[in-house]
């Protein structure tokens, strides 16, 4: 039957196989993260958990440049991989490592200069926390960008190993250190050690197979005009969506008392169970959609499959949270945070809307369509302004998040199903021909 054939084809597809692999690895990491947050929330107290949550959100936002660079790496690397140009992919990998190493050194220097100011803004009594956070950011720059090469080559086995090392060791080392001394600093030190190990593995694993058999340096053809356009679009998109997902925690830590910030940290963790659970979807969608478009094929089947998975998982999570928010939150972080339960369902709704907005933005990025960036930026600015001006209670902030996420979903989804006038490379066929011609010269 046609329907059965469609189902069998889906489960045999690369999307299903690679998606399952990344889903399993991210699920293990999410479970480890849950165990870590469970330990931290109980051992360091509500106020201490607010410190860890605010530093985590700060690191995510400061990682935006790395995430932007990683997305560009995936797009450019996927195009080289799609036409089988292994030698230029190897040269591209080498250049990526050089740029990432320079960015790491810059991050270390910036941390030394700015860590005191950041500690004051977040009301942190121990400035060592921001120093350690800066070191984590520097190493994460290497991990994120070099892992993008694995994603571009569709090497999701090593991608999964890198993810497991980073997230799994962070939990194991963090729990071990916090159990010795119940301080937020120990949780951050565990993260730092895990990041160092993950960065080392990812650098080694991301070496292109052609790098060891290279007959000499080979030039990499890069359309710098298109890269500049893509960088602007990808950069703005990543900055907007990441800020919408994490800036609220930083603002709460700045405006609210320590206990309230801790409660909000637990609330945001509950909402991000959904976000992190579906985090593997964009990882698969971007290179798959890019590769299909490069071959002149429609990428809509990839989007439909991803949307179905997101809708199924989101429905289950929202059902559980809607029925038993207090039980869900107590299981996640303990009884001390039960006062945040009334806000959990609307926060999860906002997280769901933002997850679908991220999926739509990832798909449009793969097709080089960035018309949504301007309207989405306006919505993001309005949301941050509203939180800054109207933050009397946690409820005020959560309501603002729901409205903002709904508007962002509208701006990113507008025209989503329409067929683009041109391919993501402006002329996909020309891109392939250029690469083939360059390989002959």
Number of helices: 17
Low-pLDDT regions: 421-441
Percent of residues in β-strands: under 5%
Report the end-to-end length measured between terminal Cα atoms: 50 Å
Principal-axis shape: globular
How confident is the prediction overall: mean pLDDT?
83
Q: Note the main sheet.
A: none
Secondary-structure element series: HHHHHHHHHHHHHHHHH
Instruction: Please bin the fraction of helical residues.
Output: over 70%
Using only C-alpha atoms, the radius of gyration works out to: 22 Å
Oligomer: single chain
Number of strands: 0
What count of structural domains?
A: 2
Structural class: mainly alpha
How is this structure best summarized?
By secondary structure, the protein is mainly alpha-helical. The protein contains 17 helices and no strands. The chain folds into two domains: 17-212, no CATH class; 234-434, no CATH class.
């Amino acid at each position: 039957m046609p329907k059965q054939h469609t189902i069998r084809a889906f489960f045999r597809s690369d999307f299903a196989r690679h998606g399952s692999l990344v889903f399993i690895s991210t699920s293990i990491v999410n479970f480890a993260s849950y165990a870590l947050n469970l330990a931290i929330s109980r051992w360091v107290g509500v106020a201490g958990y607010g410190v860890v949550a605010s530093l985590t959100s700060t690191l995510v936002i400061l990682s935006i440049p790395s995430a932007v660079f990683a997305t560009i790496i995936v797009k450019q690397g996927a195009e080289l991989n799609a036409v089988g140009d292994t030698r230029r992919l190897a040269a591209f990998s080498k250049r990526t490592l050089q740029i990432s190493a320079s960015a790491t050194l810059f991050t270390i220097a910036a941390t030394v200069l700015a860590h005191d100011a950041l500690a004051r803004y977040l009301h942190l009594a121990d400035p060592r926390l921001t120093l350690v956070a800066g070191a984590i950011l520097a190493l994460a720059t290497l991990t994120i960008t070099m892992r993008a090469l694995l994603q571009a080559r569709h090497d999701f086995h090593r991608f999964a190993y890198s993810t497991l090392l980073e997230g799994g060791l962070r939990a194991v080392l963090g729990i071990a250190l916090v159990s010795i001394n119940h301080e937020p600093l120990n949780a951050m030190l565990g993260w730092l050690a895990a990041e160092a190990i993950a960065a080392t593995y990812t650098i080694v694993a991301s070496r292109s197979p052609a790098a060891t058999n290279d007959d000499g340096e080979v030039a990499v053809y890069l359309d710098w005009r298109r890269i500049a356009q893509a960088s602007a679009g990808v950069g703005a998109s990543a900055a907007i969506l990441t800020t919408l997902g994490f800036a609220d925690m930083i603002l709460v830590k700045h405006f609210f008392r320590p206990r309230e910030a801790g409660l909000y940290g637990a609330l945001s963790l509950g909402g991000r169970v959904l976000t992190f659970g579906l985090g593997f979807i964009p990882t698969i969608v971007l290179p798959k959609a890019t590769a299909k478009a490069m071959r002149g094929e429609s990428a809509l089947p990839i989007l439909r499959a991803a949307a179905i998975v997101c809708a199924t998982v989101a429905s289950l999570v929202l059902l559980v949270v809607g029925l038993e928010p207090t039980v869900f939150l107590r299981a996640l972080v303990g009884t001390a945070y039960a006062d945040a339960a009334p806000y959990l369902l609307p926060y999860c709704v906002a997280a769901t809307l933002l997850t679908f907005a991220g999926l739509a933005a990832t798909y449009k990025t793969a097709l080089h369509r960035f018309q949504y960036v301007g309207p989405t930026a306006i919505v993001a600015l309005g949301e941050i302004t509203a939180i800054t001006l109207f933050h009397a209670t946690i409820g005020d902030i959560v309501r603002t998040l729901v409205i903002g996420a709904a508007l962002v979903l509208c701006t990113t989804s507008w025209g989503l199903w329409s067929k683009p006038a041109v391919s993501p490379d402006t002329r996909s066929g020309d891109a392939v021909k250029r690469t083939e011609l360059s390989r002959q010269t």
